[in-house]
Amino acid sequence: MKIALIDQHPVLRSGMRIFLTDHFQNLTMLQTACFETFNPSADDPSFDVIIIGMTEETDGVDNVALKRIMQENPNSSFVVYAGKLQQDLATSLINEGVSGYILKNNHPNELVKCIQTVIKGDKYVCDEVKIQ
């Protein structure tokens, strides 16, 4: 499995890599701080899942950059890993093609469940999100 993680916090990225390595065999991860530095390898540019971290201070996602990355990675599932619940944003992102939305304060095993769900082609949102 190949996962890209876009999050500004290096400790979170490192911890998530260690955690996910324990739960998925043959995991390869690309870690980067932001959309601008997201640069997949030319040899193997595809990802199964691309996780986008959002901080508590963030009120949205750079929609232009997100749409660009989604167009460049049409076979990838996208998961937003949010620092706080933003119901309207979660609904909008799911409607725009994001496959999963979970909160950073959810149990770590929920991240595993989310990844397992989205790689099957299904949508996943944490219980706190009510998709209309």
Question: How would you characterize this protein structure?
Answer:
This protein has helices at 10-23, 63-72, 87-95, 108-119, and strands at 2-6, 28-32, 49-54, 77-82, 100-103, 124-125. Helix 1 links the parallel strand 1 (2-6) and strand 2. It is built from four helices and six strands. Strands 2-1-3-4-5-6 form a six-stranded parallel β-sheet, sandwiched between helices. It is globular and about 35 Å long. By secondary structure, it is of the alpha/beta class.
Keywords:
globular, 4 helices, 34% helix, 132 residues, alpha/beta
Task: Count the DSSP helices.
Answer: 4
Structural class: alpha/beta
Percent in helix: 25-40%
* Low-confidence regions: none
Topology as H/E string?
A: EHEEHEHEHE
The description of the largest β-sheet is: 6 strands, parallel
Mean pLDDT: 88
Oligomer: single chain
Side by side, the strands of the main sheet go 2-1-3-4-5-6
- Give the distance, in angstroms, between the N- and C-terminal Cα atoms: 31 Å
User: What is the C-alpha radius of gyration, as a whole number of Å?
Assistant: 13 Å
Task: Characterize the overall form.
Answer: globular
SS elements, strand count: 6
- Percent in strands: 15-25%
